[in-house]
Amino acid sequence: MVKFTLNGRSVSASSEDSTPLLLVIRDELKLTGTKFGCGAALCGACTVHVNGKAVRSCVTTLKSAENAQVTTIEGLSPTNSHPLQKAWIAEEVPQCGYCQSGQIMKAAELLAGNPQPNREQIVAHMDGNICRCGTYHRIIAAIQRAAKEA
C-alpha cells in the first residue's frame, strides 16, 4: 500500500509500486480529469502536481508519490473558481478540450512561481504541453488574463 495525499485527502493505493501514477489516479482512485495522451511524457495531457511541481503522471511511478502531496485538475479548485479555470472559459480556450487539464496544471505551476509572467516566459514554460487543436494563442491569453485577475 502506497499512501499519499490527493487533492487534500489522504489516500492509499494498492497498485504495484511501478504503476504509473496516472493509472492509479484514473483507474484505482476514479478521478478522470487527468488524461492519458502519449504514455511517454511527450504531450503533457497527464500533468499533475507532486509537491507543487508539475509532472507527467504517465511516467511518474506510484512509489515516487509515496507520502507526497498530489494535486489533479479536480483539486485545483473544487468549485472551478481558480483564476486559470475562469480565464480558460473567458478566453474560450478549448476546442476538443482533451489537453486542457494538463495545460491548466502546467500553467498553475508557472503562476505559483511567477505571478506576473511575460509572454516569453509563458511560452517557454508551456513548451512541451501539446494542444492538438492549436489553441496556443488562446492558452497564452488565458494565462495572461489569470495573472492580471489573480
Can you describe what's shown?
α3 crosses α6. Helix content is 37%, strand content 14%. The chain has six helices and five strands. It has helices at residues 21-28, 73-76, 83-90, 100-113, 119-126, 136-149; strands at residues 2-6, 9-13, 47-50, 53-56, 69-71. It has a five-stranded mixed β-sheet, sandwiched between helices. β1 and β2 form a beta hairpin. It is α+β, with helices and mostly antiparallel strands.
Secondary structure blueprint with pairings:
Elements: E1 2-6, E2 9-13, H1 21-28, E3 47-50, E4 53-56, E5 69-71, H2 73-76, H3 83-90, H4 100-113, H5 119-126, H6 136-149
Parallel strand pairs: 1-5
Antiparallel strand pairs: 1-2, 3-4, 3-5
